[in-house]
Amino acid sequence: MRRTFLLELVMIVVAVAFLFPVYALITLSLKDPAQISQTPLALPAPPTTDNFTKAWSAAALGPSLMNSTVITAVSLVALIALGSFAAYYLARAKSHLGYGLYVLFLLGIVLPFQLGMIPLYQLVTDLGLIGTHAGMILFYTGIQLPFTVFLYTGFIRALPREYASAAQIDGASHLTAFTRVVFPLLRPITGTVLILNAVFIWNDFFTPLLYLGGSGFETVPVSVFAFVGQYVSDHGLVFAGLVLGALPIVVIFLLLQRYVIKGFSSGLKG
Amino acid sequence: MTMTATPVGRSTAAAGKPRRRFAALSPSWLFAAPALVVYAVVVLYPSLAGMLYAFTDWSGIGADKSFVGLANFQTLLHDEQAMDSIGNTLLLTVAIVVVQNAVGLLLALGVHAKLKSRALLRVIFFAPVVVSPVMVAFLWKYIYNPDPSAGLNGLLGVQIDWLGDPSLALWSIAATVVWQYAGYSMVIFLAGLEGVPKELHEAAMIDGASTLQRFRYVTWPLLAPALTINLMLSTIGGLKLFDQVFAATNGGPGYATETLSTVLYKQAFVFGKFGYSTAIALVLALFVAAVSLVQVYYLRGREVAQ
């Protein structure tokens, strides 16, 4: 009993220390420049919201949130549709072709995307998709398919074949059996696929910087990056921008914390 | 209509098409076709082309490129920036893998105990995982402010130039990565801990095993799958590290924090040496592939042995 109490105390101290950067982030975003230089670590007295109103427009966060939402949402739909269909074949095929294709998809998990970065940049330019939502959606769908296929295939393999067979005996085609019977059974893994891919796509930086930088279609991390570069010495303003930029995903995380943590901790069991 | 009674009294449609029962037990490969096309366009073709470009002097402008054999790799051996970046990448990776997993394991053991605040603690430690690494890097850039009254210096009462001192900058960046992702390792270890049967602990306790012995002989072996996943994830993440470095130091001071990813980015998009850049990317790919293979074989073997 006393040992648990002691452990609890230690863990709370660790958590408080762990939160120090967050404390700095929030207090600085509520201070004016004079307070920041004179009392950088104190609580804001009095707090001001000026930084937030200024950062919201200066960082173009409204349009960026729209861009990030569209790109993330459409990519997720494409990933779930293409990934689950492909995995249904890969999990059920008994041919060498099926096994070969599965290995081919797995290769994509190991290949760092930097290897194909330049040829892909050239290809996307040739297709006229640089600086568009479509180019980013194509990129995320392709780059996250191996992982998505891997998760779905593992899950479908553990699923009894009888569900689909029963539907087929009833006259359903493979397509109907999959969409009506198998796909609804995939809900747990679809949740994992959704969470892991959403966090990755929403926060990705390198490729949207290359494809969208200066296009007016920047995602949140790219806009925040440009914004910080511009106002680098105005810490209060920069931090208000960081708070606003991080807020949507943090709020969603807090609302769905159980599912998000479960998705991250269970999805990778191969 | 002649209706033969089907065993389970199914519809006439099914009875009318008995061949369906035996037709195609496995779905057609066409199910995989759309995914395969997108995957080939976005990953397979560019990666193959990248492997070829690594042996050319392509500047990225037009189709003008010629085959130069191993010249790019010879350049790399004499390129101080690139060679430093290889060393930095490996050091960063080792530091991140060791510290992130050690901290993640300790946090997991802590919040696995029956604490009143365990749910809240989990959420706190995990939260940074969902935030963009670029934003976390900007936050830490301020925390590492050389000003003695602000940030970490103000908190600790010291005056250290965390990111400006070339011998310290790399470790400062490693610490930000650990801060952000220790919670990720924690939840994976936690899932492993939750899979350890209580009976084993009780049995060991009855046999008089100490807390440390129970961890060493009961918990630790059963954590092998979680450890495998954690080591894989942190190693690959460390080798590819870009966002945090790009936002916090952009490789400086000097070449002190250059990684393979920042150097190949600069070679391509600052200096226009696309051929050379892909050669560096190929080196990175070989590192990642080698590490993945070693870990899969070695750690899977360990899991089976338990």
Structure description:
The complex is a heterodimer of chains A (270) and B (306). Chain A contains 15 helices and no strands. Chain A is mostly helical and 270 residues long. The longest helix of chain A is centred in the N-terminal third of the chain and has 32 residues, at 61-92. The relative contact order of chain A is 0.14. Chain B is mainly alpha-helical and 306 residues long. Chain B has one domain: Orthogonal Bundle (MetI-like fold). Chain B has 15 helices and no strands. Chain B has helices at 12-16, 19-22, 33-53, 71-77, 80-112, 118-126, 133-143, 151-156, 169-194, 198-206, 211-222, 224-239, 243-248, 260-269, 274-305. In chain B, α14 (260-269) runs antiparallel to α15. The radius of gyration of chain B is 27 Å and the shape is globular. The N and C termini of chain B lie far apart (63 Å). Residues 1-23 of chain B have low confidence and may be disordered. At the A-B interface, α1, α2, α5, α6 and α7 of A face α3, α5, α6, α7 and α8 of B.
